[in-house]
Amino acid sequence: GIEVTLKARAGAKDRLYGSITSADIAAELEATTGLVVDKRKMELAEAIRQLGSYEVTIRLTKDIVPKIKVTVIEKETD
Fold first, then answer.
1. What pTM was computed for the model?
2. In this protein, which residues make up the domain named Large ribosomal subunit protein bL9 C-terminal (predicted)?
């Protein structure tokens, strides 16, 4: 399957400063794989607010519903 890794700043207990949205995932998916997916086709119950791995379903059509793995890791601070 397809795997996407996003980097985000995180604080205590791996909570993100801000959040990762379906728009962020769609942009990273396009940047890393060249696949263009409408953010509205991503089934993300709510924005991702913690580091970790998540399974996101993309509803391309009624019958084509792939899942991708989204991993959020901590961004290195300068």
1. 0.92
2. 2-73
**pLDDT tens string 37-68:** 999 999 999 999 999 999 999 999 999 999 99
What is the number of alpha carbons within 13 Å of residue 16 lying toward its C-beta?
18
Task: Give buried/exposed letters for 37-74 (b at 16+ CB in 10 A, else e).
Answer: beeeebebeeebeebeebebebeeeeeeeeebebebee
CATH number of 3-74: 3.10.430.100
**Annotated domain spans of the chain:** 3-74
